[in-house]
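--- STAGE predict ---
source: upstream dedup step, 1 unique chain passed
mode: sequence only
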Amino acid sequence: MQDQQLIDHFFRHQYGKMVSILIRIFGLKNIEIIEDAVQDTFAKATVQWRKKVPENPEAWFTKAAKNRVIDLLRKLDADKNRVEKLNYSASAIAFNNLFEKEEIQDSELRMIFTACHPKLDTKDQIAFALKTIGGFSTAEIASALLLKPETVKKRLARAKQTIRAKKVNFELPTKKRLQERLHNALEVIYLIFNEGFHSNHNKFLVRKELCGEALRLTKIILSKQEFRCGASYALFALLCFNSSRLGAKVDENFNSIDLKNQDRTKWYLPLIHLGNNALVKAEEFGDFSTYHIEAAIVAEHLKAANFKDTNWKKILELYKQLQQHQDNTMVSLSIAVVLIQLKEQENAYQILLQLEPEALEQRSYLFYGVKAEYYKSLGKIKEAITYLDIAIENVYSKPEKAYLVKKKNALLTM
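--- STAGE serialize ---
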């Protein structure tokens, strides 16, 4: 399982890099061939690494990417002289330079902002970005965006068609378009992290490779003066805060541990300090974002010495502030959870009455889990078990299912 996680980690870490570099060489018009090539490289690694994982996996991927470039040239009917020039002439220097750290980062930034190009439908941008930058599968995109897989397929196809038809360029945005596209770029990174922090994967509740990739991409954005703003620093703070808790979210068997029962001594202080510094830096800019609020919410949890000492009133205030900017089912559900902690069951119930679990798509089980918690808080164990059964029936993730079954068994012994 550890080897598989390592392979997943390097696939996530390298996918966006390889796609970005190859698109910079061959152009967006060849994106489908490029994606196939990257998938082929990953498939090759999956087979070869079963026997032995290379000492330097990143170097292996880089070499495989370079070799695949030559294969692509042939596939795209490039002439022999062009291939030879890339291998032996001065062009080889420019070609190899594209694999240097700074050039890779430049290619990745171009890919991020190209995916958020205004010529693409706003609904298509995020799905396309998750695919090209994060290497997300259709199912993973559907989970992250709370959509049906069929809808995601249509959006991806439409994005590629638009790129070809409108001849979208692979470049960084002009100053005039920067803020608009930066907002979308940050949202993509946020979604990549969320799928890592609370994954809908069948086997893993936490996928550290995605969390690490989101942190890395945010750092790339912050490395450029023109991309620094309150939102980008606040997002980095939020990711640092949540990453600090990763070591306490699951046990050695990858089973879920809820916030109440986490060993807070396992929370990683250096990341908390880094997040605090980023949040202070975010205040130096004039813009404000939902990331500021979400980071403040997580900061409240981090301040509490234990679950009982959590300042739920402050967290409720922050969630209500978040709801003014981002009124959706997930935020409302979070408010209901906080109200249950504050023993305001009637208010929580009124919120739950207004919510449609279908709006959460693959994560509808979260609604039923909260409703079970509501009935448990009232001492209505039979009703709580009923809703836990519905949650168990609707959950896809094995760790989440095991967690819910454990909660149900605990209620059965009461």
